[in-house]
Every structure is written in C-alpha cells, then in structure tokens.
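Rotation project, supervised by the postdoc (A.L.). Task for the rotation student: set up a whole-complex structure prediction and record inputs and outputs verbatim in this book. Inputs entered:
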Amino acid sequence: MNTVNVKINGREYAVPANSTILEAARYAGIEIPTLCYLKDINAIGACRLCLVEVKGARGLVTACVYPVNEGMEIFTNTPKVKAARKTNIELVLSAHEKKCLSCIRSTNCELQKYANEFGADESRFSGRNTKEAIDDSTVFLVRDNNKCILCRRCVAACNKLQGIGVIGANNRGFDTNIACAFEKNLSDTSCISCGQCIVACPVGALYEKDDTQKVLDAIADPTKHVAICAAPSVRATIGECFGYEPGTDVEGKMVAAMKRLGFDGVYDMNFTADLTIVEEANEFIGRVQNGGKLPMITSCSPGWIKYCEHYFPEFTDNLSTCKSPQQMFGALYKTYFAKKMGLDPKDIVFVSAIPCTAKKFEVTRPGQSVEDGIPGVDIAITTRELARMISGAGIDFTKMPDEEFDKPIEIGSGAGVIFGATGGVMEAALRTAAETILNKPLEKLEFDDVRGTESIKRATYKLGDLEVKVAVASGTANAKKLLKAVQSGEEKVDFIEIMGCPGGCVNGGGQPVQPASVRNNVNLVELRSKVLYDADSKEEIRKSHENPIVKMVYEEFLGEPNSHVAHEILHTHYVKRGL
Amino acid sequence: MKKQITTVAFKDTQEQRAKLDALIEKYKNEKGPMMPILQGAQDIYGYLPIEVQRYISIQTEVPLSEIYGIASFYSQFLLNPKGQYAVSVCLGTACYVKGSGLLMEKLTEVLGIKNGEITPDKKFSLDATRCIGACGLAPVITVNEDVYGRLEPKDIPDIIAKY
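Outputs recorded:
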C-alpha cells in the first residue's frame, strides 16, 4: 500500500496515499463529524460540518473531499474549527422545522446529536422560512421537506445506490428543495418504494407511512382476530432499536414482545418462505422441463417487482408468479388456517412485520387479495414501526424472556430464514430443486457461491443431468447491470434471484436507521446476514420441502406444488408500468 | 422564487422531433452533455416542457429528476412557453425605483395573466427580467425586440393594443 506521512493534531501518521482527510483521520482514530457524507455514494462537501484546518491552506477545508498529501499538517479540533462547525449547525437549524419533541427521529437524529455535542443554539439565526407541502401521496413513504437539510443523501441513495433517480434538487439558492421532477407527487413517478432514501436520511424529513395506529385499533377491537407474522430478517435487526449491536439475534425477545402487544397469534414468516420455495422451485423445474420462459426471476421482493414493471417491463413474464411470503401467509391464514381454527376471514386482521417499505405497497396491489374486499395482508408494518409499538406499550424489550412462535405455525426451516439475505432465496430454492430433481438427499446443503455481499454473484450447478446457471443480484442498480447483460445475450442464465435492496432484506428500507457514522464504518449487511446464516446452520430442518407444516398444508389443502388451488391462492400476476 | 410550471398543452412537429434527435445524438456520448442538449432543445421548442425533458431522459438514460434539477436551477431555462409576443418588465433597481412594479401590476390586469404565465390564446406571455441595460429609459418594458421606456401605467393598454 502506498502511504504518505501526515500530521494530525501534531502526531505523525502514515496513511494510504489516496485517502481523503476524513479517511486519514479515521485511520488515526479520529471521527470527524459529517451530515452529508455517505461512503461511496455521497462525497459532496455540502454540509460543511467536516471542516478542518490544514496548515498553509486558505481558510478551512472540507475533510470529506480533500485529499491528503505528503507532509500535510491537519488540525481537526482547534477552537476555530469548532466555532465554524457550530455556526454551520446553527445555520442549518435556522431553516429546519424544530419540532424535535414529536419528531419520529428524535434521539436518533444526526442533526440533533451534533447540535447537542457542539452546544449549538437552535434559535441563533432566524429569518424567512418557506412552509413546504408534505408529500404523503404514496402508501409507503412521507417526505416532509420542512425538516430537510439538503444533504442529498436520499438523492444519492436513489440515484447512485439504486440507479433510479426519481428525486433530485429542484430550483436554486434558498428555494432549493428535494423533490420529484416538475414537483410531481412521488406516487406519480416510477419510484419503486424501496425506502433506501429513508434509511439514508439523517433527520426526520423522510419516514415510512406509519400504520401502527391501525394495528393498535384492531387489537383494541374485541370482534377482531389480529395475527402477526415476522419476516426472517426482522429478528436480525430489531434489537438495534433497543440498543443492541448490529448483528444480534433477538428472535426470542421479539416474539415475547409481540405476544405482550396483545396479538391473537404470533407466527413465523419463515414458514411461508418455505412454502414460496417449494412453489418456486417446482415452477422453475416446470419451466425448464416444459420450455417455459427463462431465465426465471424470483418475485419475493416487491421493490424489485415494481422496478421490473417500470424499467424492464419486457421481463415481467420472466418473473416467478409466486406471491411473496407475506402474501402467501395472509392468503393461507384467511383460507386454510381460518377454516381450521373456525374463524370467519372477515374478522381476521392479518399484520406482517417486515423489513421493507415496498411491502406496504404490495398489500395494496390487485391480485393480492383472498377474495373481493378481503386483502391477504391487511397491514404491513416495518421493523421500525414494530419497535415503536413495543416501546409505546411500555414493554422493556431487553428484559423479555426468550419465547417461541405460536402454534400451529411455529416452524420455519433454515432455508426459510436465509431468505432475508442476498443469495438466500436462491440457495433455499436450489436445496429444494436439487433434491426434487435428484430424488435423494443432498450431501452438502451450503451453496457457497451465491453467499456473500458482492453485488452480483454467479454460479453453475449440476443437478443430475441438468446444468443450471444461476445469478444473484441485490440493489436495483446491480439488477439493471445483470438484466442488460441478459438482454444483450452476453450473459446466459436460467435462474436469477433479485432483491431490491443492496444486500437483501437485512438492509431493507424498513430496517432500523443507523447513522452515517455507523454506516460508513461497519458492514451492516454482513453483520445482519450472519445472524440468518447462523440460525440456518443451527436448524434441524434446513430444507423448505421438509418443513412439516408445509407438508401438512399440501396434504390437507393444496395437493401438489403448483396445483390449481395453489395457483388460485399463492400466485399472482404483474403489470407493465413503464416510465 | 421557485420556477412556475406551465399548464399549457404541449405540441411538437416531426421536424422539431427530428432536430431534437439529431441534437441528442450529437452530444449524448460526450462528457457533461446536458447543458448543450437543454440549450439546443430550448432553441427548438422555445421552452423545456416535461414532454421534452422526459424524451431527453429516456434517450440519454439520465434521470428526469436530474434534468429537471438543471432546468430549474438556471434562470435562462424556461419551463413556460413564450407567447407570440413576449412582454418583459424590467425589475432592475433603476426601473424599479421609477415604478416598474406598477407597470407589472397594470400588465397583469390588462393581459389577465401573472408573471411567468401565458395567455390562453398564446399571444402574450409576461415575465419580469433583471436589468436590461436601458436604465436611462427607466422604467422599461420590452415586447419581443421592441423597447418602450419612460412609461406610466396608463400607457400600457395602448402598447398592448398595437399587437
């Protein structure tokens, strides 16, 4: 590694030659405060919080974009630096709607944290402030520009991370606002509802549309049977909302807390992840054997589905027709299980706890209801909303005992739990497809080539006589690269897994928001995914088709995989939306 | 002030579209293509409505939000069509102290449109401009290339009647 010698606050360090002052300081154990900087996607020197003194430089410089060079002397903590940062925070605050007490990000707000650390006076500067309209046109997201600090992290997440770009900075100077082109509502654009902008926002300008009150109202209604199921990745992340380190498995505590919220049933969505796999693996085998549309692409990520419908409508026939696990769960709960439990589907309110804002959109899609007027899933709440409900109910999460999901839907296989990470759906499907084709147990269950956090993964597997080429992409910018290669014929694949968010559901737009200081230094995807892979390796049942509840549902209700009943209840269709 | 967005329906001709295609083809593989493309597109259409910006977005694979960001940033890019007769009122310092604000009020009344708008028959559009360098004639308005100076609000109806 090429290094250069620099002095930071009077001490000498050898730091990588091509680093910025921000990176060099981190190397020396100093964290320079930032608001607009996000590693790899947003280094624009806009917020002016990372100002430092460099000997010989004119004025203060922005550490996030200023490269180091040999002999540079940097001062990160002088009175001049601190005074400038404080003033800049005060200037940001002057145009910020300071409704901090009731703000959804209070205590988890990066601006609030720095204002507090620097002793900034929120009312030092006052002047004209324009009241901006709140965009709550979609069912999944709210934008309140009165709190926006124009850091452009959401714009970078949308444009660079996801390759979409439905938001940008409009107008100039004091009138600058982050919005859609021609000030359109977000619902009128090709936004895919992934929510990556929300988890990039340092303040309370972007948040999921809160559906917790609907859930609380349903629980309070004695005529309703209210059930909830938790998606695989929620157990790997919700601890972060209660002070646990990223990568802590809190399944038992989460279940205990959900039970104390008063739900009539608390279930494991891993079960329908398994069911999705059995349906999807058989759909894939069917397409291969009957000359169906290939490559087949997975369909459990509704952000990806919406992306495909807008940006690659020519690929909608390649999508698996399988509903996502949450929708399969709702559909099955209101039919098979309702009958078994003697419940009228009209009295059931089915809630899913998911890492995803796009699932809020998914529940409203046509083709997802059980019958007219009865949606499969009534309410989808994100990990963050579930955490808020738990805190709001006075439940001390950290003191919860470990409890188990309710019967009769308490079993999910190891294949189901890895659904929450990029490559997990593919691996789960391959386990089932391989055993179905080979008709004997696999010796090794791990498909290592599709694991890991790389953006696009490829592998070729021999299943008996059949050679299957698979590819896995996460994040829609990577999906775009892969699909373009498939389109041009440069890439030949049979089976593709795509998840809308980079790294998969563990990094979903509904997951706990980690500040840039964590995001920039810690690989959240790796830590959170490890929880799921560890859980898989400890499971006794590690193949979806061996889940006893899945077997029971086929025996008693669905018949065969991809049967007529299965198609009616567990499959859906797509639309071509265009741009 | 935020840019106003037109509500007037967009129409283009085959000839205009062919020119736009040629323009995009010329610049799309160059570095920083958007400024020349938008300038050229404005020369072709007179303004940059959503239809034109969206077409450019699809052809260049640059997100519409980014294009609109540029178009709304620079004051020379227009989101509203100009009328057959573009009426501009100088609100520069000299004209303003000489009462051009009152001329603007009178024009709003006579034309029935506000600053940045166009009449339904597309005959007149009304815009405020910064100093046009004719301070000696303050207060000044222009109608296309014609300059009218040392005006009072009562002169306005006669000027408009000429067109």
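Student's summary: The interface with chain B takes residues 155, 159, 164-172, 175, 177, 180-183, 579 of chain A (CB under 8 Å).
Supervisor addendum: The two ends of chain A are 45 Å apart (CA to CA).
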